Amino acid sequence: MDASGLMMPRAAVTAACGACAGASRGLCHGLEEADQAALFNAASSLRLPARSAVFREGDRANAVFTLKDGAAKLLRALPDGRQQIIGFRFPGDLIGYTARDRYPCDAELVSDATVCRVDRGRLESMSRHCAGLSHRLLELCAEDLAAAQDQLNAMAQKSAEGRVAAFLLMLREADRRNGGTGLDLSLPMTRADIGDYLGLTIESVSRVFAALRRGGLVKEPQRGRLRLADLPGLEALAGSDGAAAPLSGPGRPAHRSAA
Amino acid sequence: MDASGLMMPRAAVTAACGACAGASRGLCHGLEEADQAALFNAASSLRLPARSAVFREGDRANAVFTLKDGAAKLLRALPDGRQQIIGFRFPGDLIGYTARDRYPCDAELVSDATVCRVDRGRLESMSRHCAGLSHRLLELCAEDLAAAQDQLNAMAQKSAEGRVAAFLLMLREADRRNGGTGLDLSLPMTRADIGDYLGLTIESVSRVFAALRRGGLVKEPQRGRLRLADLPGLEALAGSDGAAAPLSGPGRPAHRSAA
DNA sequence: CGGGCATTTGAGAGTACTCAACCGATGTGG
DNA sequence: CCACATCGGTTGAGTACTCTCAAATGCCCG
Q1: Which of A63, A245, B47, B223 is at 20 to 30 A from B139, Cα to Cα?
Q2: Which residues form the Cyclic nucleotide-binding domain (chains A, B) (predicted)?
Q3: What is the CATH number of the domain that holds B217?
Q4: Would you say B108 and B54 are in contact if contact means Cβ atoms under 8 Å apart?
């Protein structure tokens, strides 16, 4: 098992990967031009279909990838067949970097996508010459850590509605980072994916979406597409914490404890 | 505001910090002897009382710390006065390393403790010469990330009993790493701390502990001390997922969704 | 057109929360 | 030395949110 070949059905390998070096975020951010060029040369671009795996937990971590377009989910398969979704990744995001020699989780595409592959060995030999690169990796890891902790907070403190609202606002931010309006979003993941990410059942997710539609907070003009119609309302639901009045009833003030 | 002086009431600064370099885990793990010696010289030891802050979110990250004895909690204060506890740290653990120039969260002691302070600037200048050190930092960050993700999984999938059981088994592992039997544990944190960590109310935590005591799974011979009396039982409750029969009733098979 | 999949909706059950009172230990001041 | 306040913890009763089980709908694809 490794991160190439059989795992990537119908992969079309193109020559080099301009978008990687050009991206304002991602791996190259803050690197000097010469280093960016070196990364540029170490990269190749792949086109992959929805539901294919970029890599699997336990595979040898021979490469890191940046997402050029499409969306991916990072997940850990649970022994009983369920899955815990660690997070979603969008264009410009880096996936698969790790300090270990094996990937710590699966990466699966939730839509057709183009990824940019950077050889791990190349990256590491570069990072020996270029202090900025290893620092950048630590920064990225710290960002992921912060995101995981925000997610922890959401799971601990927020109601189902609050979690979904916060999730939608996260999608919005991802869209804006990539030059979108942040109002008309692609929603390629299934209710099951969202539930596995937020710690809710499919039914609960569906009910929350139904309530958001009824409340006029969002519209779903078509499958896989979502329009944020009432941003303040969503932000109130997501709340910086979990409070704020839900769409119906007195809601859950979330538990208190500290002073 | 910075990580020294006023924040550290009654701090007693001793000369150097042998235990830091000697620790088999922590910052020095895997470093060459000369590098360990350099870190050794850059470190000083502090004695701090329970409830004091090692650093606060937003403070300039001028130092990293290793816990020599005692226990600490990492937390983020929420706008409404509550707190989200990110994790607990035990002897041998490193706290306060980050890629940013500010700490991303508070670190508070839950018991009297001795910490070993390593100057950040010293650490960074070392890491420029010593590739192993920055790699080690990335490794530590990746470990924290994995722990946060485990915690996410627990919050999403496990019942209150499962979370508490998993928490106790985590304490057990920390005790064993530090040479204890893993059976007779110190439990310096309050129910509120545990609740804020696990996403439960004080009352729920208390009820779960009561149930564990009634079921003979644990004993609390005195305040702040806990004996694990039925390890298999606790492991069954904690389950690799959230299933397994609870102490009473049919319990929560946790939600399913994936294939 | 039929099968499979994702989603929706309904009814009922159960876990964890809320509110509230009480207990024991600790610490302070009269 | 004791009254009293405080803090952490425990326990009880009732509520409410989310899960479970079940069935129906709509959509895509062969």
Answers
A1: B47
A2: 27-99
A3: 1.10.10.10
A4: yes
